[in-house]
Amino acid sequence: MFPLRLCILGILLVCAAGVMAQPVYEVQKATITFNSDAPNELIKAASKKLKGLINTGKKQFAFKVEVASFEGFNSPLQREHFNENYMESFKYPGITFSGKIIEDVDLSADGQYTVRAKGELNVHGVSRDRIIYADVVTKNGSMDVSSEFRVALADHDIKIPRVVNDKLATEVFITVKMILIEQP
Amino acid sequence: MRRLLFHILATFVVAATCNYLYAGRPFSKDIWLDETNVSVKVNCLAMDRENYLWLGTDEGLFSYNGRQFRPIKTGIDATVTAIAVTDGKVLAGFGNGMLGVWDGVVFRKVALSGTVPAEAISAVHIVAGDFMVLSTVGQGIFLVHDNYCTRYTMANGLTDDYIYTIVSPARGLLLAGTDQGINEINTSGGKVAVSHYTTSGGLPDNIVRVIRPMQKKCWSWLGTHQGGLALYCSKTKQTWTPAANEPWQWGQVNDILPIGDDRAWVCTQSGYMLDVRLQDTGGLHIQAHHYPRQRLYKLLMDSTGNIWCATNTGLKMFAAEYISSVQLPAPFSLSELTAMACDGNTGMWFAQKGKLYKTSLLDENPQPKLMYSSRSSITHLYCDGNDVLWVGTFGDGLWYSADHRNFRKVTGITPLDKESVLDISGRDNKLWVAGLNGVEELQVRNNNELTLVKLHNKGTGIGSDYVYEIFPDRNGNTWMATDGAGVCMYSNGKYTLWDSASGMTSNVAYNIAGDARGHIWASTFNIGLLVYNGRRWENIGAEQGLQSMRISAITPTSYGTMLVVHAKGIEEWQPRSRMFRHFERRLGIGIDSVSSTLNLVATDTAGNVYIPYQDGLVCFGKKTDYSLDITPAVKITSLNTFFGVVSMERNRFNYSENHVTFRYDGVNFANPDQLYYRYKLEGFNDEWIATRDESVTFPQLPSGDYRFLVQVSMNSRFTGYGQAQYSFSIARPFWMQWWFILLAAVFIWFVSYMYIRIRERNLRKLSSLQRERMMFEYEHLKSQVNPHFLFNSLNTLTGLIDDDKEAAMQYTTQLSDLYRNMLSHKDKDLITLAEEWEILENYIYIQKSRFGDALQLQTNIPEKLKKVKKVVPMALQLLLENAIKHNIVSKAKPLVVKFSADEEQLTISNNYQPKISKEKGAGLGLANIRKRYGLHSRREVSAQIINNEFVVTIPLI
User: Fold this and answer.
1) Is CB count within 10 Å lower at the N or C end of chain B?
2) Using CB atoms and an 8 Å cut-off, which of residues 190-219 of chain B contact chain A?
3) Cα(B898)–Cα(B910) distance, integer angstroms
4) The CATH homologous superfamily of the domain defined by B40-152
C-alpha cells in the first residue's frame, strides 16, 4: 500500500508540474513540528523539508516529509530511537498526506479561509482517513497555510516499549506552517 | 399582568419538560473483547435473527451472546468495516473491498463479478433478496444484483466517491452520505437518477457521515462532521436543521440511533453520548453525557433495551433506555435516607432522620437544600395531587406544607397526635395514615384541614395494629400490609383478611401495591411476593428467579412492570416475559447495593420511579411506545455424531450415526449469567430435563423419528422461555430395512429350497440304491439257492466224497465261504477288488470243481489295483455266472473267461458260444449291475460282442 501512495504522490507532483492549466501552488518554505507531551518527558522535533502541492482548481493536495529530516530532539540518542525504534524510517521513510479539500472555496483568490483537508495520512506505513483543519491566507499568489492536528500512535501501529511508556505520549501534537507560491 | 405572563411561562416550561423530569446519567459498562484488556477497535454492529450481537472489528468478525465473544474464521485478512443481516445470514464487508457471508455454520467469501470494489466497504444495505447496495470509501456505490456489481461514481452524477453510509428511506430510493452532501439515488424503473443536497440546500455541513431513517415519518436523521444534526424528508425533498438548546459542541457525529420518531441517541468521535429529543416546538433538546478518551462509533439497541456502542477499545453497553442514575453528592448517601417523595414540580424531597432536603431533578449536579428540621425522625413523605407535601414522623404525628416552605402539624385529630407514622397514602380527597396504632382514614378539606373518617385497627377488625403500607385501589377498596395479620382489605365497611388462619402462607406483609392490570402485589417476610388476581393469591419467589426474600419495597412502573427492592439489589418483574430482570452488582454497571429501609421509593408525576442506591438514585424512566422483551433466546449451535460435526441441514441419519451430541447457546443481554436450560428429546423421553450445561449427548439412540427441544429461561420454573428445536430421524439399521428383509427372506427360502431338493435327491438315490441292492441280493440269493446250482454243487460234492475225501472237505468249506461272503458283503455299496476277488475265487473253485477243464480262466489283473479300486459287490461273480449260464461249457468246447483290468476299468470276456435253450431270467443280472453302477459312476457298464467274444467292461471306482 505504501509504495502505491508514494506513486500517487509522485504522479500528482509530475502531473501538477506538467499540466499548468490549473492554478498550482508549491511549498516554498515550511516547518512541521511534533510535540510529545508525556508525563515524564516533553519531546519536540521539527523538519523544514516538507514538500507539497495544492491544486486549487481541482481542490486537491499532496504533501510529503522525510521522517529522517526531523531534528531537535532532547539528545542524539533520542533521535536515533525515534528513527530506528518507533518510526522505522529505513522501512517507512516518508510521511504523506494527500487528498481533497472539502470546502467549496477558491483558495487562489485573495482572502482568508478555514478549510477541511480530507485525505489519507500515511505514517509508519499505515494509512488513515483524516479530516484536518487548515487556515489559509492567500495574497498575491502566495498562500500561507497553518494547521494543527493530533496523531494517535496506536492508529498507525507505532509500538512504544513499556520502559518508555511514561516518556512518550500516546498522541503527538503536530503543527504545520508553510508558504506556497503559485507556479508560473 | 406580569404575574399572569410568568405563570403561563412557568406552565410552558413544565409542559415542555414533563417527559424527562430528571437529568439522569446512563449506567454503562465497558466490555473488552480480549480477556487481557487489549483494545480492539470495533467498527460496526448488527444483531441477527437469533439475537446474537455481531461485531466487525480491526481484528476480524465476532459474535456475542452476552457472555462471551466468539471469533469467526473469515479467511480474509482485513478489518471488518460493515455488517448487514438478512434472513439468517450475516454479511460482512471488509477494509479491502471484499464481501463475505456467514450462513450459521461457516463463513465464506462472496464471489463478486463485474466491477468489484477494492476500497473499504463503509455500508452494506440489503434491498431485497439478492439485490444489495455497497458503499465504499473512495470508489462510489456498487449495486449488486445476484453478486454482479455495477459501479456508480462521480461520473454517474454522484457529488463524491467517498461514501460514508447508504440507507433506503423508501422503496426504490437510496440515500448516500458523502463528503459533498447527500445524494439521493432513485433506482425505480430500472434507471438510476441522482439528485443531491448540500450546504447550499440547507445542510449544516457537507460531510454527511450518518443517515438514519425514522420509523414512521418521511424524515431521516443526518449526522455531519462539524455541523451536528439535521433532518431530511425523502418525500418533500426538504432539509431542515432544527435549532438545539445548545450550540453544537460535541464533535463529529458517528452514529444515530432513532428511538420512536421523536427521539434519538447520538454518539460522537469525541466520546459524547447524546440524548436528543425532537420537540413539538420544532427544536432539539440535547442532553450530553461525556466519556473522555473514548471514541464512540456505532449504536445498536437490542430487544432488552440495552444500547450497544462500538468504541475504539471494544464494546460499550448503555442501560439508558430502562434505567439511569441521578447522582447525589456524598453526605446524602442512601443508607442515611429515611423517607423520600417527588413533588409535582420536578422537586425531589428526601429526609435524613429529622432533616428534610429538596433537590431539583432537572439539575445535572444536584445540590440538595435543607428545607426543614424536625424534632423527631421523619419516617414518610407523601405529595398529594394538590402538591401538598405530607410529612409523617416517628412519635410526633403528621405534618404538612402547602407552599413547600412552611411546615405545620396536623392537630385536632387525637389518634394522630402522637402517632408514629409508617406510611401515608392518598386518593382523590382522601388520605390514609398508617402507623403503629392502625390506620387513620382522613378526608382532606379546603385549606388542607383534615377530618377523621374512620379508624382501622385491631379493634375494628384488621387483626393487627401494625400496618406497614396502605394501597387504596381505584375501586374504593383499601389494602393494608400488616405485621401479624397478613394482607387485609377494607371494602364497604367489611374487612377481608388473608392471614395464616385463612390459608395465607405468610402472616407478615411489608409492602402492598397494585399494578396496571389491577392485580394486588404484596411482599412477605420470607416467601417473596404474593399476587392477587381477584380470585386467588399466587406466590412469585425463588423459583421464579427472585434472588432474595428480604424485600424492602415494591412499586409498579408506568409501563406495566413491578419493581422489587431487596437486600441484593433491584428486580423488575416483566409480565410480558414472565421473568425478573436483575439489577445488581453482577450486571457490572455500578449498582452495588440499595436501601434496606422499608418503602423507600418515589414516583414522580410523569411516572418515573426513583430508588436510592449507593451513589444516588436509580431512575426507571417513563418509556416511549416500544416494549422490552427480556426473554432469552437459544440456538442449537452444532450437532455432532460419533463421526464428527454434522450439517444442521441434514436431518436424516444412518443407524451408525446414532450417537448424537447437541450443543446449544443461550443468548441474553438482560442477565446473561442467569440462564437455565432444559431439554427433551421427543420420541425418546417426553420429560423435560433441567441442566446448566450447554451440550447434551444421546448415545445409542434406537432408530425412529425425534424432535430435540431446548428451552432457556432466567428462572428454574420456566415461567417464560426461549426455545429452539431440531427434528431428525435415525434410519433403521440395514438389517431392519425392507430390502434387506426381503433379500434375506429370498435367500432363506432359496437355501431351504435347495437343501430340501438335494436332500430329497439324495434320499431318492439312497432308496433306489437300497431297492436295487435288495433286488440284487434277492436275485443273487435266488440264483445261489437256485436248485440247479445247489444240485450241481451237491452232485459235484457227491462225486468228490468218493474220489477224494480231502477235496470234498475243501469243496464244502469253499461253498460255505461263498455263502458267508455273499451274506457279509450284501449290505455294502462298494467293496475293494481284492475282497470281490476273494468271493470270486470261492465261486471259481466250486465251478472249476464242477466243470474241470471245460471252464478255463485267464486272469490279468495287476495286484496293486486290487487294493485301491472298488467294484459293486458280486459283480464279477454275477458276470462269471452269466457266462457259465448262457454259454456252452464242455470239454469239446471249453469256455474261456478272461479277466483283465487297467486303471479305469475291468474287462471280462468269454468266447461267445451261446446255449440253444435260454435260461429263464436272462439279462436280469447285467441290468442289475448297470443300475447299481449308475448310482456310483457316470461311466457305463458295456456289454458287446467283438470278434465272437462277449466282452463286458465295468468301471473301476
Assistant:
1) N
2) 198-199, 206-207
3) 6
4) YVTN repeat-like/Quinoprotein amine dehydrogenase (2.130.10.10)
Does B206 contact A154 at a Cβ distance shorter than 8 Å? no
pLDDT, one tens digit per residue, over B461-490 is: 888 889 999 999 988 899 999 988 889 999
CATH code that applies to domain A2-182: 2.40.128.110
B759/B17: higher pLDDT: B759
Domain ranges (residues) in chain B: 40-152, 171-241, 253-322, 633-733, 765-955
Is residue A58 less than 8 Å (CB to CB) from chain B?
no
Q: CB A103 to CB B206 under 8 A?
A: yes
Q: Does B598 have pLDDT greater than 50? A: yes
Residue among B38, B119, B162 with most chain A CBs within 10 A, to mutate: B162
**C-alpha span between B650 and B24 (Å, rounded):** 52
Report how many helices (DSSP H) and strands (DSSP E) chain A contains, helices first: 2, 9
Q: pLDDT band at B8, cuts 50/70/90?
A: very low
DSSP-derived secondary structure letter, B112: -
State pLDDT tens for residues A89-130: 999 999 999 999 999 899 989 999 999 999 999 999 999 999
Inform me whether the C-beta atom of residue A77 falls under 8 Å from chain B C-beta atoms.
Answer: no
What is the Cα–Cα distance from B359 to B349, expressed in whole angstroms? 7
Q: pTM of the entire structure?
A: 0.77
Neighbouring residues of B175: CB distance < 8 A, sequence distance ≥ 6: B166, B167, B168, B169, B182, B183, B184, B185, B211, B213, B220, B232, B234
Query: ipTM of this model?
Result: 0.81
CATH of B633-733, one of 1.10.540.10, 1.10.1370.40, 3.40.50.261, 2.60.40.10: 2.60.40.10
Q: Which fold has domain B765-955?
A: Heat Shock Protein 90 (3.30.565)
> What's B736's DSSP letter?
G
Per-residue pLDDT band at B827 (split at 50, 70, 90): low
Distance from CA of A102 to the nearest CA of B (A): 7
